[in-house]
Amino acid sequence: MTNQLDLFDRNSASLNREIILNDDGAVILYRHFFNLAESDDILNILIAELEWKQEYIKMYGKSIPIPRLTAWYGDADKPYRYSGIKMNPLAWHPILLDIKSRIETVCDRSFNGVLLNYYRDGNDGMSWHADDERELGKNPVIGSVSFGGTRKFSLKHKNVEHPNNKQLVDVDLTHGSLLLMTGACQSFWLHRISKTKKYVKPRINLTFRFIE
Q1: Which residues contact 106 (CB under 8 A, 6 or more apart)?
Q2: Which pTM does this prediction carry?
Q3: Which domain holds residue 131?
């Protein structure tokens, strides 16, 4: 059986790769995938030119705003559903196609959609979840790119008896970083972006996916 890390060796040998997990799936971090100047330019374009939306979820019979702004861009026939929300794809913006092309060369995968989350400050976050929606298929590759303020990304194993269920795996996702999740990661692991009382700059995260 092929080691999941082998999938990324072919085109990433020259990059500074950090292995975060290689247990029940793989999580790999490229901390400076985009340089500072291009990361600044990309962040400004994403904030100014994308169509951000405030989505709501139903809780206890009430509509509650989720704590972040979102957008879904992708191929025309690839809507995305999560937490009772259906997102119809917006047409690809050129900057998103450029980012997509860059990360596809590293992970040797094609993506046809990207979910964007705009964390405006420390009051915005995302609770524990896995990217395991049916339309993503079995063992999806998720390419997660971050621009803006540094936020803590945490993982814990779904098995309550696993050591990492109690002791979290924490990673600081920095400006211009790329995090890849692959193999059985979504079947065995949960992840989150926790809220914080500390001052943090606005952050935009892009998670590239392939919708079957």
Answers
A1: 8, 11, 12, 15, 30, 33, 178, 180
A2: 0.91
A3: 4-209
